[in-house]
């Protein structure tokens, strides 16, 4: 019942705020309209380029992208999105759709909606300076129910991004730098996401940020502001940080939060004992930051409908692209071990999954 109530509340909140990306959209990216007034274009093959390809479909603005095929699209080079588009991965049949072996870039674009898309860069991309998803210097972007794995530079790079939301998504198993997400400028919203086995940046928040109902597992450093981030405001509410085999200090759930930051932290839990049971303790101590008595964003408390424990159940059931595939099922199984399984990896091969670690769609 609590999940239904939360969803209804989120839908009401979205409508009341004039947000129109889709029913239930929340946060600063939810005002994006994407290509919803444009032409529907269908991806009809898994080719890297050419007629009917994903690359061709996203090459022009004012489009709604839908899929008549399922499986992986293997990129030979980074693919660039246009502004004013909606990508509906949930329209793909069977196991759904995934992008592998290269970066998906929205760099310099605006007004984009992406849902139910798997983006898995991995070592098949020879350009180690690129990320799984790049939205640098963008505005009005929402990523919902997506799955991001095997990012090399950052999994999600959002330097210079304005008004973005990452919601109900999986950000896991980064390689290379082993980072989750890097955000500058903002504001940004991270809501209901599952972060797994990253060295740091979950996210690196150099902006005014909402961070609500996230689950972070097997971290070395989780929510990070960095000593050079400038002075920003952070609403960190009802998140669960769960130590794993790679966690050397559970207190690094809040990392490099310096005196320049203003933080409203409430309802957060840290499970530090790695004993296979969810039995964390409340922890809202956020370094040397100025402690705020109220959130900076007037929408934050309305979004925080789930407690940290309720968020754990909901996120593990619902985060990521649907239907849940081999890679995401593996990621969730690590989290469910509650401290006994998981590692920060250097290649998708380290997972032992099929298709060279990418999993089979």
Automatic annotation (TrEMBL):
Keyword Cytoplasm in annotation: no
InterPro entries: Pectin_lyas_fold, Pectin_lyase_fold/virulence, Polysaccharide_Lyase_1
Keyword list, A-Z: Calcium, Glycoprotein, Metal-binding, Signal
Cofactors that this protein relies on: Ca(2+)
Highest taxon in the source lineage: Eukaryota
Signal sequence range: 1-18
GO molecular function, one term: metal ion binding
Protein name as it appears in the record: Pectate lyase C
């Amino acid at each position: 019942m609590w999940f239904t109530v939360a969803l209804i509340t989120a839908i009401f909140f979205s409508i009341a705020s004039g947000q129109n990306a889709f029913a239930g959209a929340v946060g600063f990216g939810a005002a994006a309209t994407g290509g919803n007034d444009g032409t529907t274009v269908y991806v009809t093959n898994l080719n890297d380029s050419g007629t009917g390809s994903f690359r061709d479909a996203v090459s022009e603005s004012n489009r709604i992208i839908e899929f008549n095929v399922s499986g992986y699209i293997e990129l030979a080079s980074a693919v660039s999105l246009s502004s004013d588009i909606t990508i509906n991965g949930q329209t793909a049949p069977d196991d759904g759709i995934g992008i592998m072996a290269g970066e998906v870039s929205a760099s310099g674009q605006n007004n984009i909606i992406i849902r139910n898309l798997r983006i898995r860069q991995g070592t098949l991309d020879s350009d180690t300076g690129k990320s799984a998803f790049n939205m640098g210097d963008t505005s009005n972007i929402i990523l919902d129910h997506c799955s991001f794995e095997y990012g090399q530079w950052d999994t999600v790079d959002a330097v210079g991004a304005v008004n973005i939301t990452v919601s109900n998504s999986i950000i896991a198993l980064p390689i290379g730098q082993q980072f989750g997400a890097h955000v500058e400028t903002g504001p940004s919203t991270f809501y209901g996401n599952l972060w797994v086995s990253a060295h740091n940046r979950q996210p690196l928040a150099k902006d005014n940020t909402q961070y609500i109902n996230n689950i972070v597992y097997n971290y070395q450093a989780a929510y990070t502001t960095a000593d050079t981030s400038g002075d920003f405001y952070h609403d960190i509410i009802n998140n669960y940080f769960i130590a794993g085999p790679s966690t050397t200090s559970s207190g690094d759930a809040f990392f490099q939060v310096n005196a320049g930051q203003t933080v409203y932290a409430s309802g957060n839990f840290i499970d530090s004992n790695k004993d296979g049971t969810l039995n964390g303790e409340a922890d809202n101590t956020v370094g040397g930051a100025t402690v705020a008595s109220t959130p900076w964003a007037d929408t934050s408390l309305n979004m925080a409908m789930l407690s940290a424990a309720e968020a754990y159940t909901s996120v593990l059931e619902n985060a990521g692209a649907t239907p849940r595939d081999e890679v995401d099922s593996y990621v969730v199984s690590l989290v469910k071990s509650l401290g006994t399984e998981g590692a920060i990896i250097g290649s998708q091969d380290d997972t032992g999954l099929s298709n060279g670690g990418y999993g089979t769609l």
